Amino acid sequence: MATEPSDRLNALLLDRNAVAIVCRQPLESVEGPGGVVFPPTYAGKGDNAPPEYNISDFGDGRNVCTMDSVQSQANRIEAAFLTAPYRALVREVTVRAELADGEQRIIDVLEAPHRLADATIRFSDLRQDAERAFRNFRDAPRAVAELSPMSLLMGAFDSRGTYCKIPRALTARIEAHNVRRLVRRALYSAALTGKDLGHEDSKLSQIGLDNALDGPIPGGIIADGGIWREAVLNLIALRQNCGQRVTNRYDEKPSKTPPDDLSAYIFGLGLVSLTLQPETFLRQGCLLVAAAPVAATIRYADGAKTSFSLSTVDALEFAKTAALRFGVASLPPRQGHFQRELIDEANRQAQEKNEKKKVKGNRGA
C-alpha cells in the first residue's frame, strides 16, 4: 500500500539524518533566453553616483548578479499568506497606526519586514508580548509562533531589544549567472522649450520644459549563464527553532512517534512556501517565467541525496492539518495600536547610546 503524503512528510521531519530540502529551478525572461532583464539597483559609491547592480565578479570572466535577495523573497512568500487559502494557516496579528494626516493604516505582521522584531510591533502595545516571547524563545518558542510563526521559519533578530536572534530555516533567492551589463541613455525632447517661451537665459528641464539628457545609467543585463531560483528548507534550524534541543545520532532510525505540533506546524508552512509559485513580476523590466520544472532533493548529513516530489495540494493539506493540531483556529485575532509617543523616547535613548560610544572611542584614542 502506498505511503500517505502526510506519513512520508512526518517521517522526513523526524529523520535526524535529513538536514535540508533543496529546490532549484531555472527561470528566463518572458522574452525568452537571452532577453534583457533588470536586477534591483542599489546606491552607488560617493555623492551623486549612479545606482549599481549587485554583481559579484570572480575575476575569471564569471560573475553572479542578485535578481531577488533572500530578504525580498521572504517578503514575497509572506505576502502570499495574506490571501486565501493560505490566510487560514496564520493567525491574524495586526497593528493599527494613525498617520500624520489622520489616515488609519493597518499593518499585518506578515507585511512587517522584520516580522516580530519589526518597529511596528516594538512601538505598539503588543511590544511587551513580543519581548516576552523573544526572552522565552529558547525554552518556550510556542509564544513566538502564536504571534508570528513566520519568525520561526524566516528568522528574526530583535536587534533593538532583547537581542534574541532566530535563525532562518527557509531561504530563497534568485540569481543570474555570467551576466553582461548594459547601459542606457535617454533624451527627453520637450514639446515646448524655454526658447519657445521666451526663457532663453534659464533652463526649464527641471519642471518638464526644455530638452534633457540622462545617463549613462544601468540598462539591464543579459544572463549568459541563466537565471536560477534556489530555495532551501533547513530542517536542523527548523527543529531547533521549535525547541528540539537534543541532537540525536545521525545513524539512529527515525522515531515513529508523531512530531510535536509546533514542529509540524512550522514544517507545514515551510512546505507550502517551497511549493508556492513564486511571483514572476519582480520589478519593471523583470518579468520572469519558469524555464523548466523545479528539481527538489533531500540532502542527508552523510552527503547522500534523494529526489523529493511534493504537490502544492499535498503541501497545503499537510499544513492545514498541522495548523489545526497546533490550534490556529482557536487563536483570536490580535490588533495592537501604534504608540507614536514611544518614538521620542527611543530617539533619546539612541542618542545617549551614540554619545557614550563617542566618549568611549575618544578615551581609547
TrEMBL record:
Domain of life: Bacteria
UniProt name for this protein: Type I-U CRISPR-associated protein Cas7
Organism: Aromatoleum toluolicum
